[in-house]
Design goal:
The chain is an alpha+beta fold. It has 2 domains: 147 residues, no CATH class; 153 residues, Alpha-Beta Complex (Phosphoenolpyruvate Carboxykinase, domain 3). Strands 1-2-3-8-7-6-5-4 form an 8-stranded mixed sheet, covered by helices on one side. The protein has a 5-stranded mixed barrel with strand order 9-10-14-13-12, surrounded by 4 helices. The radius of gyration is 20 Å and the shape is globular. The termini are far apart.
Length: 307
């Protein structure tokens, strides 16, 4: 028996396929994992996959010799390792040491074909759960997939699809007010919140669009809304202020503010160059502002009055 789950994130079709069965979830687990967070990203169409992930359940993760370490991420609280990224010949390896999610992903050079090696579930045996692949691996995979093709970036930002259909991005470092902005727009504007922390920006036929993603920040009410995309019209680099204030900025100023909010592939100079080129093209095409905002809903009308 073949089991399969298809996702569509930022117009990228991801096929996860295995000869092993999917894990059976309780009703509460199903609602928490699928109905809320992932429902809008499940794909039932007929388009061919852009990325194919084949899942294997093994008693022991394979040992890959001569792999060169590219990058390690650590948990921000206890500093334990989250995952590491390695390269062997022209392929890449994603490896997670987490106790409940030990896994190894072997990725081809184009980031569109993956063999995922997972360990058996402690109580349910040789089954798999697609959420174990979405977090954190699929995000890393898509960052590299887009960079490889010079087609897009991930940003720490809030994405809004306003009532006129236009897209707005609010970008800022941790504590700058992204979740606060998301709450105001969700509660008082009738606009659609695409995401409050992970927005994907893609170039489609010389236009730039923002897309929601399954990865979000502390504000999650918008998950009840339909996830969509929108043509990006304005970018605001935000910070808290006593009064709403605005200053238009140039491309160079905008890049300095944007770069710390990216997910750059700094382990690969060619891909990093693609990301940098994409950013300058984006910032040359979209109006950019520095925005100080008050902690109240007045920022919504303030933004909408900008011509």
């Amino acid at each position: 028996m073949i089991t399969k789950v298809n996702l569509r994130i930022a117009d990228i079709n991801i096929e996860m396929i295995s000869r092993f069965p999917l894990e059976e979830l309780s009703e509460s687990e199903r609602i928490a994992q699928v109905e809320e967070r992932f429902k809008n990203f499940l794909y039932a169409g007929n388009l061919n996959p852009d990325i194919s992930i084949r899942i294997e359940i093994v008693k022991k993760l394979p040992l890959i010799k001569n792999a060169k370490l590219q990058f390690i991420t650590y948990h921000f609280q206890d500093k334990s390792e989250n995952w590491r990224f390695l390269k062997v010949n022209s392929s890449y390896i994603f490896k997670s040491p987490l106790e409940d999610k030990k896994q190894l992903m072997l990725i081809n050079k184009d980031f569109d074909t993956v063999t995922a090696y997972l360990l058996p579930h402690k109580s349910k045996g040789f089954v798999w759960n697609f959420t174990d692949i979405i977090y954190d691996f699929s995000q890393v995979l898509l960052i590299n997939y887009l960079a490889q093709r010079n087609e897009g970036i991930f940003t720490h930002s809030v994405g809004i699809k306003d009532l006129n259909g236009e897209g707005i991005a609010f970008i800022g470092k941790s504590g700058a007010g992204k979740s606060t902005i998301a709450r105001f727009w969700y509660n008082y504007s009738k606009a659609m919140i695409l995401n409050d922390d992970r927005i994907i920006v893609r170039r489609c036929k010389d236009r730039f669009f923002i897309f929601g993603s399954p990865w979000h920040g502390t504000f999650s009410d918008y998950l009840k809304s339909k996830i969509e995309s929108a043509p990006l019209k304005k970018i605001f680099f935000i910070h808290h202020a006593k009064e709403n204030c605005l200053r238009k900025i140039n491309q160079k100023q905008a890049f300095i503010l944007l770069y710390p909010s990216l997910f750059p592939t700094f382990w690969d100079q060619r891909l990093l160059g693609n990301i940098t080129t994409f950013c300058f093209d984006l910032l040359n095409s979209v109006e950019c502002y520095s925005l100080g905002f008050r902690k109240d809903k007045s920022v919504i009308d303030f933004i909408r009055q900008i011509k």
